[in-house]
User: What shape does this take?
Amino acid sequence: MLRENAKGIKEIRELAEKTVPPIARQARPFVDGDHWQGGAGWIGPMPRQQEEGFSETMQVLEAGFVSANRVEEVCDRHAGGVVGREPQWGFTPLETPDEDGGVDDSLKEAIRALEDPLTWWWNERGVHEKLYDAVMYVAWGGRATLRLYVPSGLRDEPIEGDKDLRAFLSRIYVDVVAPEFGTVHRDPATMKPLGVVLYKNEEDKDVTEFSYLDQQGHTVIEVAVGDETPQKSDPLDMGGRITMHELSRRPIVSPQLLQQQKAHNLALSILSRNLVTAGFLERVLINAQQPGHWELDPDTKQPIRFVPKRLSFGSGTVTWVTGVETVDAATGKTTTATPDVKYRDPVSPEPTVAAARATYTSILEEAQQAHILMNADANASGRSRQEARKDFESSLRYTAPVVERAGRWLLETAVAFAEALMGTGAEAGSLSKFRCDFMVRLDTGTITPEEMRQNDESVKAGTLPREYAIAARGYDDVDAAITLINERPGAVLDEMLARAKVALTWTQAGASLDAAAEAAGVPDEMLAVLKRGMVNMDPEGRGGDEDDEE
Assistant: This one.
């Protein structure tokens, strides 16, 4: 066994730390909002560290540093696209149903008895939100670890009332572990899993938790505080499952995206400085005497100190500016210089604004989310929008199976964990009869009015199901939307006309009206109306007397 052959807790902690994706350590401060990073996040001009005044200059730069957390934004958008909508899940029998495809009442009742407490547990533990957090970790860090555990204060506490599945599920909690603090390693020799989670306890001591399988295939949980001897749980018959699961995929955040984030922050910081220089114009007075007065020596009556007066600018003020007087030492002649005022014109912010937008665009393109800006771009073609949205959808589909696999593991392992605490063996447990089906519902965002019109035209042409067009508009309950549409007065007129045309085609081919109506799916009520309407028709299909037209 990997755990039993390990030299100690320190070795396993080092193993977990070595497997942390490098991008996770690089992206962590950006996601947490620390874009300055002690000056490492600033890529603009600055003095060398050994130069005099380095600290003062860096303090000034930090005071004017402006950032926008685009890294967190693209990760949040990706997580929302994968698990923003409530996933669909349920349990089905492991055995193939009867030939008629049905499931007998006893199996339905057993599935209901399994799903009801799990639904309560799902809502009570906020599993949907936990999966969202896990996808966020995967998006910027490349991995996340799900951990099922029983809090130490509940392990020995007796269960009151019915000792059913819900009672034991109530003891189980879900934790989402960040990329730096958890992993599931597989022994290369046996491919058996070893789950490792690192955290701090209430006393701020390092805690290492393991989950692995013993020689009999039972689940063992060990908890070690510092370098102390681990406390080992009793073996649990969970059908070969450990209490940890790792989600992993290529992260959305890349070194190039982080570079663009720094460039974006630089553009925003320069923009704020541009606003200052444009809003507060600089004036340079040349050969001008600063307003003020001289203080005289009380004894000699000679000037000893000049006391300046503040210049006033703006509406309703009058400022007198005189030239500087100079005295020629040789002749004693006094000369008054001609004063002048120089202004520094404000610099246009357009280049800086363009740079900020360009870097933001690059970030979205790197994260396969360029459709966000295209939705607001009137010049972007419909084809470009479709390609950009498809690019975003492809990134979501890359993450979807990772989440679905984690969802199945989470629900099945929660059941196995609870039944193991109950004392039910894996062979007699629920997972010996049923398996979990788990499916995420991707959301690529609200489509544009042009895309809506294209979908409507495709529905009319018969190349797109109406259900797909409704789902694309963002409706979660498609069936309810269709019901409301069908209940609208006159909503079924198009369908009735289409069926009537099919029936007419059959009658023209020689079929009877009853046969044509059956082939076209015409309801009996509509067929009766057609037959009444044909009473006043002559054999050639023309109307009868004018008196009978009404």
